[in-house]
Design a protein that fits this description.
This protein is of the alpha+beta class. The chain contains eight helices and five strands. The protein has a three-stranded antiparallel sheet with strand order 3-5-4. Strand 4 and strand 5 form a beta hairpin. It starts with 19 loop residues before the first helix and ends in a 29-residue tail after the last helix.
Length: about 200
């Protein structure tokens, strides 16, 4: 990072910090959308060209080592993806997992989607008070929720429950979902969309 606070384009001879590979992997494992080299360079305070070289090296190594995941550069940036040749194994695992009971986090997330649909990941996370991206992906892969277009104001991807969700719960329609009123606090009038007092 230069003295004026901007990220340097970099010096091709610059050596990467010893923890850069580890730090890049840690960040890329938690993002749910591709992240640009510039954003990574700025966040990690490392020259842009060093970040670019390290990402390219990691991607090449994962391929050479035959890992089940791949680090890819797409239009919007870099992201970790499951390798296409592993798709059958992942699909089989997730389908088998449908018979396994859902975690408390998954049940809570699914309830928010069911009662607030169509709803964005950000809104679900705000209601639950924790990041729900991983749980949302699992629910999509299990066929319990699905994409339902984009929010007209924010452009965020919206989600809704599926017919499989209704089938698993033994419901004919969403109007058969139980009333939430008995489980809400008495002073619900003073709560906003995120459950915080206004």
């Amino acid at each position: 990072m230069s003295a004026d606070g901007t990220t340097d384009v970099g010096d091709l001879s610059a050596a990467p910090p010893p923890t850069l590979r580890r730090d890049l992997e840690a960040v890329l494992m938690v993002v749910d959308q591709p992240v640009s080299e510039y954003e990574l360079a700025r966040a990690l305070d490392v020259p842009l060209d060093v970040v670019t070289r390290t990402l390219e090296d990691l991607s090449r190594e994962y391929t050479e080592q035959g890992r089940g995941f791949d680090l890819r550069a797409v239009a919007e940036g870099w992201r970790v993806y499951t390798r296409p040749e592993c798709a059958d194994v992942v699909e089989h695992f997730l389908k088998e997992g449908q018979e396994v009971r859902l975690t408390q986090a998954a049940l809570e997330t699914m309830a928010v989607v069911a009662y607030r649909q169509p709803v964005s990941r950000g809104r679900v996370s705000a209601v639950r008070g924790v990041n729900c991206d991983g749980v949302m992906r699992t629910l999509v892969l299990r066929g319990l929720i699905e994409e339902a277009g984009h929010d007209s104001e924010s452009g965020a991807l919206l989600y809704r429950t599926t017919s499989y969700f209704l089938e698993r719960l033994g419901l004919r329609g969403l109007d058969e979902l139980p009333d939430l009123a008995p489980f809400l606090p008495d002073d619900i009038e003073g709560l906003d969309d995120t459950g915080e007092h206004t």
